[in-house]
Amino acid sequence: MANHNQKPHAIMIPYPYQGHITPFVYLAIKLASHGFTITFVNTHYIHSKISNSQSQQNCLHNKDDLFARARESGLDIRYATVNDGFPLSFDRSLNHDQFVEGLLHVFSAHFDELVGDLVKSEDPPITCLIADTFYVWPGMIADKYNLCYVSFWTEPALVFNLYYHMELLKKNGHFASQDNRKDTIDYIPGVEAIEPRDLMSYLQATDIWTCVHRVIYKAFTDIKKADIIICNTVQELEFDTLSALNKYQPTYAIGPIFPSGITKAPFSISLWSESDCSQWLNSKPNTSVLYVSFGSYAHTSKEDLLEIAHGLQLSGVNFIWVLRPDIVSSDETDFLPVGFEESIKDRGLIVPWCKQIEVISHPAIGGFLTHCGWNSTLESIWCGIPLICFPLLTDQFTNRKLVVNDWKIGINLCDKELVTHEEVEEKISNFMCRNSTQELRKAVKEVRKTLENALGQDGSSEKNFHQFMKDIKVNARKRAGLSNGHTSPLYQNGNGLTH
After folding, report:
1. Is the Lipoprotein keyword given for this protein (predicted)?
2. How far apart are alpha carbons 65 and 477 in whole angstroms?
């Protein structure tokens, strides 16, 4: 039987995409700095991608252990890798559906075997599993090994809440209907109103039995087994939504989950080699550069990219454009207009990947043309940068609603479905004229203040984080038979939110 004074020991496993890995790593560091032992698990493929990108930049410290430096600083973070069911050479982007089918049906067996080995061998004993919400099997594995099950949601609580209430959307004909309703949705608990166009792409779809849909259905069945849900968001920004969720399960807003000293991450966790843009940025006036990036995963059409490139060219603004080689598809890499790079060479910099937080925190950056990924949104707010929104898939449409409609810290790139270079040129030119975005900049500063306050010593995220850690310990004691089975009362903060 476990000693009740021993350190809590959590296995953490992110979904194998950059946008999920980043907050998982920072949460691991934060938990370890508060006395937790962490065993962090990546897939062999993700480990290989990170190791290769670090090798190319000559910043690799220990190719077999990404957390070696963290341990040298005194943190008890161990590292393990697991097979995702595919060989390293398999193109997971080009064969996306096949890869997701593997995550659905094969990956759990590999992870189950790893957890079984760790449970038998680790000291202190494993007491907790912190798994990405999109996995469909954590409840089963946590039950099998008698572990506290924490589900980590890396996106806004609004997105979680809409998935949580898919059956309500279905019942009312806004989802999974032959002809989905287009009127305002006003019946989701904790959501005053949302337009169907602002739902996640998978809830707007007509084909509702894709592999990703099946992941979502199974994951949001499994989530009901979670002991604790944590969200990378801020209570004050999504108060009503979080209050509604807390009526079902303990749900903590502990975001934004950033490293301390955000503009200098403790080590690289990028899946791609990162270009250094600092010298180029140093040559540009303050707030004169538009940063353009559509994230680590989403794809866009060649036609849209051509229109955006043409619009950037005509706008006359300075810009850095992150263009992943697979932004259109893995097998098509020639997607810019003929002569484009030559025409913009004095005011434009195109890179395959970069240290985003270091770029957008530079004084030269005046705006961010973004796909509205959640990490990018939070980082941009933290750096006080207003947004031009061009969502591509999944939660990005709902994130845009928060940015443009609710917090008023950004604008839409295109008001019509069709992307045109005329509209791109007009939006970018107006946006980068500082006088026209004064209200946006003022609003971003206010939202940033909300983030700062939440992370302060008496802030909501900090209080929630400490209560979340306490609940893990109480749950572990209960499972070990060392308590009377009653969990500690959850705090009620000044805003009146109770669990």
Report:
1. no
2. 31
